[in-house]
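Batch manifest, entry 17 of 40.
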Amino acid sequence: MVAFTSRLGILLVTLPISLSSSFVPTRRTNVVVERPNPIFSTKTDNAIQTDADLSQMTVVALKDRLRQLNLPLSGRKDDLVKRLLDNSDQQPPQPDTHEPKQEEAARSSEKKEDDDSTIYNNLTVPALKERLRELGLSVGGRKADLIERLLESNDNTHTEHEAEKEDEIEIEASDDDLTHPDLSSDDDDENSNDTDRSESSTRRAKRKKFWKTQEVRELIKQNDQSAIMKAEEMITQLERLAAETGDDEYLPGPIQYTTLIEAYSHGGTVDAAQRAEKVINRLLSSVDSKDANPTTQMLNAIIGAYASTGTEPAAEQATAILEKMEYIKDFGDGTVKPSVHSFAMTINAWSNVGSETAAHNAEEILKRLLEDYDEALEQDTEYAKELKPNNVVFNSVIDAWARSGSNSAGEKAESILLRMEGLSKIKIYDVRPDTITFNTCIKAWCNSGHPDAPLKAEGLLRKLETNPQYPKQRGGMLIVRPNRLSFNTVINSWAKSRKPKSAVYAENLLIRMIKSYQSDPFSTVKPDVITFSSVLNALAKSKATGFKAEKCKSVLNSMITLYEDDGSSDTKPNVICYNTVLNACAFSARGGPDERRKALSVAVETFNELRRGQFGLSPDAVSYGNMLKCCANLMPPGSYRTKMASQLFTSCCNDGLVGGMCLDEIRRCLPPREFMQLLAKCGCNKPLNQGRMAHSVQLSQLPRAFTKNVKAGDLKDRQRDSYAPKKTKNIVRGRKQKEHPVLRRPGLLIEQSWMSGKDV
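Output type: C-alpha cells
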C-alpha cells in the first residue's frame, strides 16, 4: 500500500506539468486531478530560509508567503522579512513541493505590477478615479494614493486568481480517502468554484472594456483623428471576444457605444454624424441586446456631431433627433429623455448655420425648452432638474443672432439679455447674464450693420463697466466685469464704421483700457496686439483725422512701451502694426505741406526700425510696397524721389520681396524709361533688350530671385487701369484693334485708402 501510494504521489506531482506543457486552452478549463498530500512529497526543505535569502525576494513574493501563513501584510520590506523569520523560528520547517512555481508566480506578479504601474502613471486623475469607482474603492487622495490603491486591488485580484487555480486542481482520492472529513462535500466546493470563476470572468471582462474605452477617450480628448478608427476597433474586438468566449459580459454596453458616438461627433463631418446615427438605428433594431439600448448620452453625442458641421441640413437632422427624444419620452418607455444639454446642442447647431432663419429656429427651440421645463415642474420634479435652463442655452441663442447678419440682430440679442436679467430674480431658473452674454450681445450689434451699431455696442460696454450684480441660486451675488474681448469688439466696430470721429472713439477706448490696466493690478482688460492693430487701422482709414501718421506712430510707441514694461507676448509689436503706420503715412497726402513732410519723416523712421530688426522683425513685401507708396504720394517728382525709390526697389529685389504692390508703386515713382533701366541694373535686362513698354512687364516675368520670399497672397499683380491696355473698342473687317495705353506722367498723387486695395 505504501509503495502504491508513493508511485501515485510521484504520478500526481508530474501530472500538472505534463498537462501545462501539452495543452494551452483558449478559455479557462477546470482540470480536476487529485491534490498531492504533503506526506507523500519526496522533496523537503532541508534548511530554514535565512535573512539574506528573504531579503533577495521581492515585496510581492514576501506578501504571497505571508498570505500562505495567514500573517499580516502591512509594513515595509524589512518588517515583512522580520515577520517571516519570527514565524519560521516558532514553527518547524514544512516540506515545500511548489517552490519553483511560487518563485515563478512571484516573478510574474512583480512584472505585472510594474506594467500596471506604468499604465496607471500615464492616466489622468479623473480616469483613475473612474476606475476606482468601478471597483467600489475610495477615490480620495492624490494621484500617487490612487495608483497605490489600484495596485493593491490588482494584487488582491491576482492572489484570488491563483487561489482559484489551486482549487481547480483536485486529486482523485480512493474510496477510503473519500470518507475523510476534509474531503467531503465535493458538490458544494464545485458550486463555490463555479461562482468564483463566474465572478472572476466578470471582473476580467469589465477590466477589458474599461481599458479599451479609456484608450479611445484619451484620443478624443487629444482631438486625434484616429479616435474613430480605435473606437470602431474596440466595438469589433469586444463583440469578437464575446463570440469566442461565449461570455456576454464582453459585449459592448452603453458606455462603449457612447464613446464610439462621441468619437464620431468629434469628426466634424456630416458623414461621421450619419455613421453615428446608423449605430443608433442598429441598436434600436436589436431587441435582444438588453445592455445596448440607446441612451440620452448617445443621442446627445449624435446631435453634437451634426452641430459641428455647421450646415442647415445638419441642423435639421439635429432637430429631428431632439424631436425623436421627446417622442420616446412621451410615448416610449421613458428611458430616453431630452436634457438641457440636448436643447443647448440643437440650438448650437442652428447657431453655426449663420442665417436669420437659423436664429429664429434657435429661439423657437429655446421657447420649447421653457415650456417643457414649466410642464416638468408640475408633473416630474426629478426630470425638471435635468431640464432646468441655464446660461448656455440663452447665450447660444444670442450667438445665433450675432452670426445671422440681420439688421435686427442687435435688438433681438439685447431683448434676450433683458429677459435673462428678469429670470435671474426667479429662484426656479438658474439663469443670469455673465460676461459672455454681454460680449455676445456686443458682437450682435457690431455684426448687424445698423448705422448706430458702434454707439449701441459702446452703451453695453459702459453698462458692463459698472459691474452689474445678479443673485446666485445658492446665495451670493454674481459680479459681471468686462474683459479684453469686450473692448476689442467695440474697437473693431468703430474701426469698421464710417462715422467721422470713429477713429477718435477707438483711440479713447484704448486709453481707457491702458488706464484701467495700469491702475488695477487684477484688471482683465489689458490691451493686446489685436487692440492696438484695430486702433491703428481705424486711424489709418480715417478721413477726418489730421496728422494721422503721427497719431499712429504715437499708438505704436505706446505699444512698445507697454511691451518693454511687462515683457508679455500679448503686447509684442508685429510687422502688421508697422505696416499699418506706413499705410497711414501713405494716405496723408490730402493734408498740407507740413503734414506731408511729417508723414514722410514718420514713414522713414518706422521703416528704418523694421530694417534694424527691432523685436526680431524685418520688412515684408507689404512694407516695401507701402514705403514706395509713401514716396509716390508724399514726394514731388524729381531726382530725390527717383533716387530714394530706386534704392528701395534695389533693396527689395535683393531681399526677394518684390510683390504685386511693390511693382505697381515703383512704376508710379519712376518714369517708364528709368524704370526699365532700373530693372536692367537689378539683373532683369530682358525687357529692356526686347524694347518692351513699362506697363507690359508682369510680375510672373521677373526673375525667381526677386519674388522668392513673397507670400502667396502678395504675388498678385496690382496694375492700375492707367497702365493696363484698354478693352477692344471696335472691330474693323473682322479684326480686333486695341487702343494704345495712355501712360500717366508721374506726379503728386492723391488717392483714398480704398483705391489701393492693400490696406492692413
